[in-house]
Amino acid sequence: MDNIVGTKSRLVWAVNLCALVLVLLWTFPTFGLLVSSFRDRDQISASGWWKAMFPAEASVQYRAAGPDTAVLKDELYIIEGNIFEGGAGKVTAFGTSIREPGAHVVGSNAETRDGEVLTVAANGDFKITSPSVMEGTRGMRVFATTVTPARFTFENYGRVLGAEGLGRAFLNTMTVSIPATVIPILVAAFAAYALAWMEFPGRALIVAAVVGLLVVPLQLALIPLLKFHNDIGIGKSYIGIWLAHTGFGLPLAIYLLRNYMIGLPREIIESARVDGATDFQIFLKIILPLSFPALASFAIFQFLWTWNDLLVALVFLGNSADQLVMTGQLKNLMGSRGGDWEILATSAFVTIAVPLVVFFAMQKYLVRGLLAGSVK
Amino acid sequence: MEQFVMAAVTILIGVFGCICYFFLSNIALDRIYPAFGPNAGANINRASQIRPWLFMFPALALLTVYLVYPVFVSIYLSFMDAEGDKFVGVSNYIWLINDVKFRESMFNNLLWLVFVPAASTFFGLVAAAVTDRIRWGNFAKAMIFMPMAISFVGAAVIWKLVYEYRPDGQEQIGILNAIWTGMGGEAQTWLTSPVVNSFLLMIVLVWIQTGFAMVILSAALRGIPEETIEAAILDGASPLQVFMQIKVPQIWGTILVVWTTITITVLKVFDIVLTMTNGQWGTQVLANLMFDWMFRGNDTGRASTAAIIIMLMVTPIMIWNIRNAAREAR
Questions:
Q1: What residues of A are in contact with residue B317 (Cβ under 8 Å)?
Q2: Tens-place pLDDT, residues B46-61
Q3: Set of chain A residues whose Cβ sits within 8 Å of the Cβ of B229
């Protein structure tokens, strides 16, 4: 349609550029976190994640082996070693004092105050020589400016899943979200069918009530329901949170499913009725299979919502290891390990990994659900 | 492991319980009012009057217990004292109006209400418009839509890294400070500087909600009848004019829907504030204030009062939604 007046190449460029800027703006924060989760603690505090792809320049300090390890050769006491200790990297300059860490060119000889001579090669090999016996108990400090290639590690993931308790929290989150997704579907589907295809007084009123309940803030429900759960003996337990999620998810489920079911062709349902099918049979054999797209949409919504939820879990579940969900764990980590970005970034990525997979695999249904679910 | 067994059993009980309930209640109804015999006609009528309620009973029961009943209990509790034992009249409301933190929350909520829906809708509209015209539009859409799948807590971590502060002289690892110092500024502790920090929190929600706005608006844009655009182009309208004067007015209704839906999300915003600043440094919002009084203050009266205020702010949109839905049903 837009190319009726011929292609306007400048406009096309502008549109492409605008889209590119938007996409970059919207992805860079997540990307930064992903990159950070593969870097170790020192790398993260040494440079921004955007520099992770490039070789990193750093000032390092290395303590050589102690004087007692010096070997005598050609009347010189020698200590040798490598400041990368076998790792990859390149030295661009070195020095003998903290005040001038890069005073000497690679390969040159630097003399220290006590008459020792230090030389460092580009690959990190260093050699300390002294005509007399070296004194002291500790090794000499070697300062160097190094360039190390980009390096990534999976260590954070192992640590986070094990020691930081996120593996357990992952299981807890699964325990919360799977039943909380499955149970409302059936309950809602029956109600939606009644509201879409059965005639009875008060139907419009109930539909209106469901639309109204869609926006009731959860905050309102927390205190009364916590009291209610305590009164009936559920307390803070999985049963409680399943029921709560089911209740909170129902308005959207009923609304989505009813909107979808009402759009199904009337002829199919009526001909089934004429053939003597009961409402129960029509529902199970015709409506339910035909409503699969809507059921899938809602299932994705509810799964994402229960997986990502923090508020309901904080209120209806306890804080113990066997009840703490991932979002809660992540919140705790933000408090206790505020500066440990390798832990935070990796934990955050573990918590958002499953929703992201679901999102990319089922995006079609999610979009469909959004389009049907926003009150038109 | 035990937990998984429990979850699996719950799913089974839930699903089979539901099926059994529907199946058995249906059979029972057919037994009580058989569709044959002397009163067949009357029985069928009566059964078909009862059947919808059988179908709806579990859903209605859950909705009543989990959404309707709490509204009334909350209203009741808001007139009671901290433990919910003694009637204290409107003193919770009077306290609320005079509370500094509440005023701050109201002010911030109003800022959020203006900024987040406006920015999300604007960016969503721009994103919808440009991604519909390019070849890699679907990929671009998926990328902008992606934050929708990320939890608020996850988003908070993601953006905290963006806003991270390192003292001057150290290498900045937060991209905002890196850019800021790169332009010659002095590194800032962004999240503790009042007003700016509120906007930085809002950006997180805008980032999440833009994808939603884009998806809905993009569908609306594609639904515009081609003739109107064709006519405008033939009349010599520029692409920008076509967009602003032909397309946007036609999707005005959808824009309003997007706007109100995001407004509701904004009113309930909680996780982002709790995890990024916990309402300190002038960033408090109503939902977090309510949570504060519920768990740290242990005062159900004040917490309920704050919740009622949120409910009151949602109510106009609720009524508007119901009227729209009713009009559509007609």
A1: 215
A2: 777 888 888 888 899 9
A3: 1-2
